[in-house]
Structures are given as structure tokens and as C-alpha cells.
Amino acid sequence: MTCIQPHEVLKASGVAEEFKQGMGTAAFVSHQWVGYDHPDPDFKQFRVLQEALTYIMTELESIPPDGYSRVICHCQPLPTQAFRTSTIFVWYDYFSCPQLGSKASGHLGEEDDLSKAVGSIPSYVLRCEYFFALCPVVAAVEELWAQKALRPWELVEWELSESLITCAVFRGGSAEFVQRLVELRANVNHQRTRSLLPASNFEISEGLGALQYRLGREGVWEAYCYHCNGMTPLMSAVLCGQHESAAALIAAGARLDLVNSRNWTAADFGRERSPPDFLHEAFAGCTEGCERVAAVARGYSVMKI
Questions:
Q1: Which residue of 106, 163, 179, 204 has the smallest Cβ count within 10 Å?
Q2: Residue 272: pLDDT band with limits 50, 70, 90
């Protein structure tokens, strides 16, 4: 194979097959798209995968774990004999998910075949024995900026705004941190947009979390994964119990009327998590309490330093 062709072409030619137990071994390939409407227009990423699999299936006797996995997790080298004695079926999104009839908007829909396939990715992962992270260094800065329709400095602002959302998830939110990001031009009303196909291992983890939420596991992480499309920093802070961060965001001008893709506002997340009085007051239209809490929290942080 010397070029990446879509699912429909490979299926018509008999190259793409429906994998069933007993046919061999399945391997899931996670990667980031290099182009806007094509995962690997110059065949740079996939060539690396071809070379790696060739090396595994011919010369390498075992795949050594990285230092952290070996020392901390006590992982052992993975023998490669199974790659030579069993047929390997590779799951790769552009090969395995319908492409030509997908929506041009680039956002998840409810009914199109591509959206259904993307929603099934966690089940595909569970059926695979191997999980490959294909992440070679590929020079694609122009494509990334074109995809996001952002200039370099706007891309930095986008990354800072995303940080306002993720810092609450990993309990790194504080009034001082929010203030610093806002000073660096992070947008307190930024809304996260989940891409049509997972572009990283983190987004695959989100897909698994969303599936667990649908199956009844309603922890904070699972709720975040289910609601993250369209989520604002304020929604994330309220959901994850980062009340100081939420107060600082409201004091910095975070809007209370925005909704995510599930049509939830920050107040809706508050009703699920029993926030303190100053947030209840803010949801009712009175933000003075949040402004006081944010000011005190910033002052306390400065005193601690």
C-alpha cells in the first residue's frame, strides 16, 4: 500500500473485511489526522506503521517496554511470535469508518454512518488484542493552522482556553491560575468542540468514558466525557467541584447562558453537584459573592507565595 484510501474504496475492492473472532488477531491504531479531510495525505504516518510492523514481524524478538512501564508498572517485554504466527487485522479509522457520505461540518451528528461508527470506537478497542499509538514527528503546522482556521497567535489563545477546561478536570483550577490564563488572553467563554474522529489517546479515553456513562457509571470523569462537547470552562469547574475556579471564571465574565451539546448550562451541572451558596447566587443572577470569593482567593494565593 502506497496511499491511504477511504473505507468505501477498500470495501468495494475486498481489502477491508468485517473482523470476527477466530479470523486472527485485531490491532487498533490510534493516530492524529495530519490534513483537514485526509488523515495522511503525504503517506508519512502510515509508512512509519508499515516499517514498524515489518520490523516486528521479521527481526524483532520482543518489544521492550519504556523505562517507566518497566520500573514502576513492572511490565515485561512483549514477545513478537504472535505477529508471525497469526493473521493481523488492523483497525484504522479511515479504513474502518464510512467516509465519503460523512457530514461536511466536521461535528458529530446523531444519524450518519460515520457518527455511528465513531460512537462504536470503544467497542472496537475492546475487541482488539493490541493497541498501537502511531505518533511519529510529522511537519504539518500549516495543515493544523488551516484546519483550525487560526493564525499562530490565535492558536496559542485556543490552547490557553482549552487549558481552562482541562485544569478543572485534573483539579488544577485555582483563582490565581484562572487569572493568569485570562491575562494571557484565554477565553473564559471558550466552548470545546469534540472532533469527528478521535485525534489522540486522550480523546479515545473520553469516548470510553462517555460509553461508561451511558452504561450507568456516573462518576465525575464519565460525566465530563459524556458532556464535554460544547463544554465551557465554567461548566467544567462546576462539574468537577472546583468552586474557587468557578467563582474566578464568573468574576472574569464567564457567561451563564451558554449550553453544551446536551443543552446543559453551568447551572444544570450545579443542580447535580450541590455547589456553595455563592455559586447558587450567581446562577440566580447575583455575582457579587463570586467576585468576593475570587478576590479573597487570589489574595490568599499571593500571600502563600
A1: 106
A2: confident
Query: Would you state the cell numbers that stand for residue 143, as one nine-digit string?
Result: 495543515
Long-range contact list for 268-274, CB < 8 A, 24+ apart?
Answer: 269/227, 269/235, 269/238, 269/239, 270/238, 272/223, 272/239, 273/238, 273/239, 273/241
Residue count of the chain, please give it.
305
pTM of the model: 0.54
- Name the CATH superfamily for 150-193+229-304: Ankyrin repeat-containing domain (1.25.40.20)
Which has the higher per-residue pLDDT, 76 or 102? 76
Span between the terminal Cα atoms of the chain, in Å: 58
Supply the pLDDT for residue 273: 77
pLDDT tens sequence across 177-202: 888 888 888 899 999 987 766 767 77
**Chain region(s) in the chain for CATH 1.25.40.20:** 150-193+229-304
| Pairwise CA distance, residues 164 & 162, whole Å | 5
Sequence-ordered list of residues with C-beta below 8 angstroms from that of 84, at least 6 positions apart, any chain = 57
List helix spans (H) across the chain: 7-12, 44-58, 67-71, 81-85, 93-96, 113-119, 121-127, 141-148, 152-169, 175-183, 201-214, 220-227, 233-239, 243-251, 266-273, 277-283, 288-304
Give the Cα separation of 280 and 21 in Å (integer).
Answer: 53
Per-residue pLDDT at 303:
35
